[in-house]
Design goal:
heterodimer, A: mainly alpha, Rna Polymerase Sigma Factor, Chain: A, Arc Repressor Mutant, subunit A, B: mainly alpha, about 0% strand, elongated
């Protein structure tokens, strides 16, 4: 069971105040989140995922000072997790095919981060219906890309591109473009 | 023997020091102030304070140089702080602020040239120390860059080249501000050329070595 942004942030703030129990609760709650984050992106071995989860927990612990308390916790967490993954690729000198690149670049935890302060539906209305549907299917309703493609009668790469472009448009809108 | 995740969490949770809300600003500030102290010692000890400093601190040119370098250093630092030390970096649009001090000093420089006879332009522009000025600025930036590096290495920058360039810019500008204690040059056209060149060199050096040294 994934914990909510609000709960995670409360624990994070507790940890920053020096509350060891809150910090431990946070790290424990992050394990399943990070597992699914890396499993989805890394077509590697189980050990790689395990290593990355542990490295990310250590990073969350040692670089807590770089978290801005005025921003959503999950956004920070996934930014750290993405950096860890890119670093993992760099260290192993692996290259990533362009097909998988988009899986890496999409912003996980995006909806949690956004719904904290903004209405997702309003934002989806600002992008094209096709992009909105693709984002809703894959990021809110939890369908796979293949299911979303069948549902919308479009190709899988079209779904991926729609999600990517739609999220990018929404992100730049939120960033105050 | 690999550590199991549960054990890892337990061992990490054994030591949870409090992190103040301004911890990030404090670390970066500490890095800069520490670096500036070393640079100041170098300027006073090795280069020496300019002999006419009592007169100089009353002059327009001294404060123009100081305002220029301090404002560039301030903007570079603010960027390092607000945007580049955290994994989620926001928009870099406010970088245009760097243009304000540049345009202002360039304006003073143009006014200088316009009011001086053309045969003195070359002397105004090159001064007595143009060959060495940018290199001194670059050298004096090194301790401040080291201080910033120390701060960044405990934080979480993700755009390392940019973070390195910003740290280099801030270090170059603060280094140049300290160098004002020694530098006897007075013309704005000198400052806009050779000081800026030194700061750009520092920023470029930061961009080159940033990704190597800031990786985490």
């Amino acid at each position: 069971m994934a914990e909510s942004e609000v709960q995670l942030k409360t624990w994070m703030m507790g940890g920053l105040e020096g509350d060891a129990a809150a910090h431990a609760a946070l790290l424990r709650a992050l394990v399943p989140l990070l597992h699914s984050f890396y499993r989805r992106r890394l077509h590697g071995t189980k050990e790689d995922v395990e290593d990355l989860v542990q490295e990310t927990l250590i990073t969350v612990h040692t670089r807590r000072a770089s978290y801005d308390r005025n921003r959503p916790f999950t956004a920070w967490l996934y930014a750290v997790a993405r950096y860890r993954m890119i670093d993992h690729y760099r260290r192993r000198r692996l290259s990533v095919s362009i097909e998988d690149l988009e899986d890496i670049l999409i912003s996980e935890g995006f909806e949690e981060a956004v719904s904290a302060s903004l209405d997702v539906e309003n934002l989806l209305n600002t992008v094209s219906p096709k992009q909105a549907r693709a984002i809703r299917d894959t990021h809110i309703d939890g369908k796979s890309v293949a299911e979303a493609a069948v549902g919308a009668c479009i190709g899988e790469s079209d779904v991926k591109i729609s999600v990517y472009r739609g999220l990018k448009a929404i992100t730049s809108r939120i960033m105050g473009a | 023997m690999k550590l199991n995740t549960q054990q890892l969490i337990e061992s990490l949770s054994r030591d949870v020091p409090r992190v103040g809300a301004n911890a990030l600003a404090k670390r970066i500030g500490f890095g800069i102030v520490g670096g500036c102290l070393v640079t100041t010692v170098l300027v006073i000890g090795v280069l020496g304070v300019r002999s006419d400093w009592q007169l100089a601190v009353l002059s327009f040119s001294f404060w123009m140089k100081w305002t220029y370098t301090v404002s560039l250093g301030g903007i570079g630092t603010a960027f390092a702080l607000a945007r580049l030390a955290r994994p989620i970096s926001g928009s870099l649009r406010s970088l245009w602020l760097l243009a304000i001090p540049v345009v202002m000093v360039a304006g003073v420089g143009i006014h200088e040239l316009a009011t001086a006879p053309p045969d003195t332009w070359r002397a105004l522009w090159l001064g007595r120390s143009w060959i060495i000025c940018p290199w001194l600025v670059l050298t004096l930036a090194a301790p401040i860059f080291a201080g910033l590096l120390w701060a960044f290495r405990t934080l979480a920058p993700t755009r390392l080249r940019l973070a390195g360039a910003a740290a280099g810019l801030a270090a170059g500008a603060w280094g140049a501000a300290v160098y004002c204690l020694h530098c006897p040059e007075t013309s704005a056209i000198f400052v806009i050329t050779w000081y800026s060149l030194g700061i750009i060199l520092a920023s470029g050096a930061g961009a080159v070595i940033g990704p190597r040294l800031m990786r985490w």
